[in-house]
Design goal:
single chain, 347 residues, Immunoglobulin-like, 7 helices
Amino acid sequence: MNLLGLPIIRSNPERKWDAKKGWVTTEKFKGEYGAICQFAAQQLGRFSSLQISPESDGSASLTLTLDAPDAATPPKDPTNTGEPEKDAETWELQGNDLTKDVWSHKRVKDLSNADYTWLRQNVKVAKERGTWTQIDAAIASLELKKIWRLFMDGVESYSVAQYVLRRSLTTSGSSLGSFVTKGANWQYSTQQIIAEFTVPNGLRFTLPQGAWIMRTPSVTFDGTKWSNAVEWWHADEWNEALYPKFNTPEATELPPITLPPSQQVKPPVITSATASPANVSEGEDITFAAAATGLQPIQFTWFVGQTNLGTGASLTVPATASMSSGVSVVAVNAGGQASQSVPVSIE
């Protein structure tokens, strides 16, 4: 078959949905190497990736990848929050054990200033002199005695559960908008995270209470899709001097990450298509000429029915009786194609 005036065979498009990446469409073509290269040049800007594989017999195959259900899908406008329309979204809650110094334990930090100072001084003395039992016998406070015996038993660390909440957004490479970075290095309560970032219902009941720090988001482009990842780190508490609370005067915002303008290219617009002379005898020369606006380069191909007459903005050929049934021109650029008929009178 002829595709845009070129002898190229096209396979049916393959469409795939991935929960993390959204839609991906793959189109494959096969034909003579020169024709494949010419056709590939016309597709630049419409597809996310392009690969030409030459064959030993002089032919070649072309694989085009598009990050949408079909080639006619326009760029996605931003949502009402200004962020790109997402193709896919995933959430993860990861847990692990974190080892911390026993002096950072809440029960130790909650001691009175006098008891905490006494504990610091006497643990050091007991380690140097081995007087653990003697000092233990003199402790009157039950809470202080419990903590003292932790040090007496050689406990120097303890384990806490550490949680990381991660959200990943994937959007089309042609999407418009900005990834919001507001909130990086801020403290959020569990309820604030749920409300501000629309945590899925399935995760809401598993999130531990406490404070969460939003880490600086990351944005990547893999040649097909944009990805935006952000994490929140959990702790019982965070230092407000280092990490201000959500929506307080101390919380300063990072600028949003704006995606570049869409690379989608529009098809050409034919502004004129003529035959000269308009009335001609069979066998005499007739010149066809066309002009079009749009992204260059624009290739013109002339047809009588399905027969290819030739290419070029201007084409001179001998007139034939078949031209009376209709001559048309097809203009092609990286954004697509346009066609127009040219009236011809053969005497």
